[in-house]
Specification:
By secondary structure, the protein is an alpha/beta fold. The protein has a domain of 209 residues: Rossmann fold (3-Layer(aba) Sandwich). The protein has eleven helices and 14 strands. It has a seven-stranded parallel beta sheet, sandwiched between helices. Strands 12-9-14 form a three-stranded mixed beta sheet. Helix 2 links the parallel strand 2 and strand 3. Helix 7 runs parallel beside helix 9 and helix 9 crosses helix 11. The longest helix is centred in the first third of the chain and has 22 residues. The structure holds nicotinamide-adenine-dinucleotide (NAD) and uridine-5'-diphosphate-4-deoxy-4-fluoro-alpha-D-galactose. Uridine-5'-diphosphate-4-deoxy-4-fluoro-alpha-D-galactose binds next to helix 7 and strand 8. Nicotinamide-adenine-dinucleotide (NAD) binds next to helix 1, helix 5 and strand 5.
Length: 338
């Protein structure tokens, strides 16, 4: 059987997908430039699965790096996860985001064309929808009102892939729009390891729980939601990984797009309460004004993926937090920096 190439496979989501693929007896090749990934994550994936993967320290902006991999390995499918993902950083460094997320994607597709590899899963994001007037959000909701360069680069990459698939009918491309991935593999050996001070809710709360940060700032306590705080659709990382396996199984010529979410929203206060209950630690928090560009609530209609991919998220919020806490409490410093 041909191998699967994961770009960005040393990162948070990619390492969990590598694990799920190895568990399924697929051969995995990872390319990552390690700007935000860890070799230790991949070593632990090998320990957990008892299987080896192939790693290349390379950059998706380099045709030579990619061509080399396609020459050395018989790749059947690519899961394209490499990219930059910080909303705030994208506002101060838009050029880096366009280079990595847009130019990098064009470069990858060029290299795939030379290697005659025609099957691709693309990591997109619920951010392409922009703020929506109502929830749940389904795949027919309008896109385009992105509120930051990160979101815009994801949307441009989606448009490019859709138009490319229309022009080259042998291409089979699926874009997966993730809602809010959290949690860790249940071994507690791999998980999310953000650089510096986290900007996302869960990694921030866990740093408060382990005592690295003093308190959480709750951005907005006056939203029109039941307790006034923002509501999001948090999805367990292993459910997200399972969604990629189903998307691979169901890849067909053309361009398709699916939401990967649970369909259920939780507020910031509900998350704080759940982390306190599971960790036994108090989470100090202070109210702050709303964060610019944030929606009051955002949760998915995941029924298209259920119908067409036979996938649905199975793990509850308590499991997401318990698995993440196992990782953060065992490895409060994350991976040892290489
Ligand atoms: P991550 O930063 O942990 O992983 C991305 C990986 O890509 C890192 O290991 C990084 O070193 C690598 N990388 C970055 N630029 C590269 C380049 N030019 N060449 C090679 N490797 C490069 O992020 P993640 O959370 O695992 O996200 C993976 C993908 O999913 C990203 O495309 C992200 O935009 C998308 N996504 C993430 C979320 C989320 O909340 N985590 C939500 C929606 C979409
Ligand atoms: N929040 C706080 N305090 C914090 C961080 C977040 O109160 O310190 C609140 C936010 O206001 C929001 C909720 O917690 O109501 C979730 O915020 P996150 O930053 O964790 O997640 P977002 O939904 O804002 O955005 C994330 C990623 C985006 C991605 C989107 C959908 O950051 O890149 O999910 O996948 F596009």
């Amino acid at each position: 059987m041909k191998k699967v190439l994961i770009t960005g496979g040393a990162g948070y989501i990619g390492s969990h997908i590598a694990l799920a693929l190895l568990d399924r007896d697929r051969e995995v090749v990872v390319v990552d430039n390690l700007v935000n990934g860890s070799l230790q994550a991949l070593a632990r994936v090998e320990t957990i699965t008892g299987k080896k993967l192939f790693f290349y320290h390379g950059d998706i902006r380099s045709a030579a790096d990619l061509d080399n991999i396609f020459r050395r390995h018989h790749i059947g499918e690519v899961i394209h996860m490499a990219g930059l993902k910080s909303v705030s950083e994208s506002i101060s460094r838009p050029d880096d985001y366009y280079q990595n997320n847009v130019v990098g994607t064009l470069n990858l597709l060029d290299s795939m064309r030379r290697a005659r590899v025609r099957r691709l899963i693309f990591s997109s994001s619920a951010t392409v929808y922009g703020p929506q007037p109502c929830c749940p959000v389904d795949e027919s909701c309008p896109t385009g009102a992105t509120t930051n360069p990160y979101g815009t680069t994801k949307l441009i990459a989606e448009h490019y892939l859709r138009e490319l698939a229309a022009a080259e009918p042998q291409l089979a491309i699926t874009a997966l729009r993730y809602f809010n991935p959290i949690g860790a593999h249940e071994s507690g050996l791999i998980g999310e390891d953000p650089c510096g001070i986290p900007t996302n809710l869960l990694p921030y709360i866990f740093q408060v729980a382990i005592g690295k940060l003093e308190h959480l700032c709750v951005y907005g306590t006056d939203y029109p939601t039941p307790d006034g705080t923002g509501v999001r659709d948090y999805i367990h990382i292993m459910d997200l990984a399972a969604g990629h396996l189903k998307a691979l199984d169901n890849l067909q010529p053309g361009f398709r797009v699916y939401n990967l979410g649970t369909g259920k929203g939780y507020s910031v206060m509900e998350i704080i309460n759940a982390v306190e209950k599971i960790s036994g630690r108090q989470i100090k928090w202070q109210p702050r004004k709303r964060r610019k560009g944030d929606a009051a609530e955002c949760y998915a209609d995941p029924s298209l993926a259920q119908r067409e991919l036979s996938w649905q998220a199975e793990r509850c919020l308590e499991k997401m937090i318990a698995d993440a806490w196992r990782w953060h409490s065992a490895y409060p410093q994350g991976y040892v920096k290489e």
